């Protein structure tokens, strides 16, 4: 496991804590978000090897895991879904268009076997993930895969962007399910949510919409990705 980071902040009467760890051969950001008041939490993109990290962080804070979220179905974001679900009893959530990737993970470029996992919750556009005082809106942002999603807590100004938006760029579109046209539209949508919004992507450092404004505006103006 690689280094991670954490923060805790107040938004009006809400408080949210984020803990992350970089794991696996392609440095996936595994994230745990918790409400310290209710001790409820969700985990995002539980890649291999993240089981010990998730269990240890939950135990250290006396948190209960309510949901395991897959922002999309690529192997480097789903490998420990089944293990975390078995240890915590939390259901797994993914967009319906990426459900098959969890249930029947292909070998792809993975350097090890990816266990199948069975989603129990559909992350459809307009849905809301509730835990404690947090309300994360589900934004369907296809392009990296057909069923890629972002999670947006509007009051807190926090976006979990998966592999749709990174610091300095975007996710690949040359893998199965990728579409440059759809990803450009998804990035244009994210460009409109506000410069102050903090972004935790699926790989790489955290950023804000404002820090990515220059290239996002180029995508919006051109209606396409650029080289």
Structure description:
The chain is of the alpha/beta class. It is built from 6 helices and 15 strands. It has one domain (6-222): 4-Layer Sandwich (Metallo-beta-lactamase, Chain A). It is 22% helix and 31% strand. Strand 1 (6-11) and strand 2 (14-23) form a beta hairpin. Helix 5 packs across helix 6 (213-222). The protein is globular, with a radius of gyration of 16 Å. It starts with 5 loop residues before the first strand and ends in a 5-residue tail after the last helix.
Annotation field: number of helices: 6
Strand order in space, largest sheet: 1-2-3-4-5-6-7
Note the quaternary state here.
single chain
CATH superfamily: Ribonuclease Z/Hydroxyacylglutathione hydrolase-like
- What is the chain-wise order of helices and strands? EEEEHEHHEHEEEEEEEHEEH
What is the CATH-assigned architecture?
4-Layer Sandwich
| Rg | 16 Å
CATH topology (level 3) name: Metallo-beta-lactamase, Chain A
The portion of residues forming beta strands comes to: 25-35%
Model regions low in confidence, pLDDT < 50 over at least 5 residues? none
> Helix share of residues?
10-25%
How many strands, which pairing sense, and closed or not: the largest β-sheet? Answer: 7 strands, mixed
């Amino acid at each position: 496991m690689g280094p991670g980071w954490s923060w805790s902040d107040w938004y009006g009467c809400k408080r949210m804590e984020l803990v992350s760890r970089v794991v696996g051969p392609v440095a996936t950001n595994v994230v745990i978000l918790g409400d310290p008041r209710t001790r409820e939490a969700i985990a995002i993109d539980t890649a291999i090897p993240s089981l010990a990290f998730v269990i240890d962080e939950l135990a250290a804070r006396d948190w209960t895991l309510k949901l395991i979220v897959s922002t999309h179905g690529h192997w480097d974001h789903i490998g420990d879904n089944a293990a975390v679900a078995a240890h915590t009893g939390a259901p797994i959530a993914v967009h319906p268009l990426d459900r098959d990737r969890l249930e029947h993970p292909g070998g792809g470029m993975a350097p090890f076997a990816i266990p199948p996992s069975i989603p129990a919750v559909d992350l459809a556009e307009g849905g809301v993930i509730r835990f404690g005082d947090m309300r994360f809106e589900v934004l369907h942002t296809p392009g990296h895969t057909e069923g890629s999603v972002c999670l947006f807590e509007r009051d807190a100004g926090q976006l979990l962007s998966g592999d749709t938006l990174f610091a300095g760029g975007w996710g690949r579109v040359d893998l199965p399910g990728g579409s440059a046209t759809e990803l450009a539209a998804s990035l244009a949508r994210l460009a409109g949510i506000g410069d102050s919004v903090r972004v935790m992507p699926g790989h790489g450092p955290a950023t804000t919409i404002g820090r990515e404004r220059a290239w996002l505006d180029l995508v919006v103006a051109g209606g396409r990705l650029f080289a």
